């Protein structure tokens, strides 16, 4: 990818924001990387308002390499770890789309939490509109979030994260999610 001027760079970033997500799940509406990113930014502000500028930039850039790689579904990356490793290597070669913002482990966990919470909220919206195909990614996202102990136990995020996660879990149960999720809220 050749960037010769500022307009090329601005166009590249806008193109990255237009990448469509969830291409392997039947959805009632499409979500773009740009919409997803804005959702993460608003969650980050809600959960961790003292976030450094580098965290905001990391969120803004985290899915930009998908302009080159596409939105590869997480389940296949978990099923084939070598594929995940190759994708990471490919993404690292997509500068200026990919950048390292030198986040602490805690900051990376907060960003990941917000990333998955945004997925949960989007799938919850789909389920509320009647799309039962979104139920499995909703349940998987909630299961991962309940396992994100570092974020949940940090004093600066605990008072927002835990109620948000409990409320999202109860909302998921109301749209037909697996009843075993209720155990997570106790």
Helix content: 55-70%
Assigned CATH architecture = Orthogonal Bundle
CATH-defined fold name: Hypothetical protein af1432
CATH superfamily label: Hypothetical protein af1432
List the helices and strands in order.
HHHHHHHHHH
What value does the average pLDDT take? 89
Number of folding domains?
A: 1
Structural class: mainly alpha
Number of distinct beta strands: 0
Give a verbal description of the structure.
By secondary structure, the protein is mainly α. The protein has one domain (6-185): Hypothetical protein af1432 (Orthogonal Bundle). It is 64% helix and 0% strand. The protein contains ten helices and no strands. Helix 7 runs parallel beside helix 10 and helix 8 runs antiparallel to helix 10. The protein is globular, with a radius of gyration of 17 Å. 26% of the residues are buried. The mean pLDDT is 89.
